[in-house]
Amino acid sequence: MSGVVHPPQVALVGLGRIVQRPVAVNGPWEVRPVVTATQSADDHRAADGARLLTTMDRLLRQPEDL
Fold first, then answer.
1. Residue 52, exposed/middle/buried by CB under 10 A (0-12, 13-18, 19+)?
2. pLDDT tens digits, one per residue of 8-30
3. C-alpha torsion sign, points 38, 44, 46, 50
4. pTM confidence score
5. Is 13 helix (H, G, I), strand (E, B) or coil?
6. Residue 28 has what DSSP assignment?
7. Consecutive H or E run containing 49
């Protein structure tokens, strides 16, 4: 699912709800809270989606850095 970008906006970010999911953490599996993030952009030149989501991922993993 993706959002609709209305001018003059160039992008939007959607965040899902936090759910408990099994994830591999340094080898063994653990149940951790996980949120899904998506980005919709009107123009690839206006928003670097991969860089934005990577930065969001880093910040959300270390909220004390916010």
1. middle
2. 777 778 888 999 999 998 889 99
3. positive
4. 0.57
5. strand
6. S
7. helix 49-61
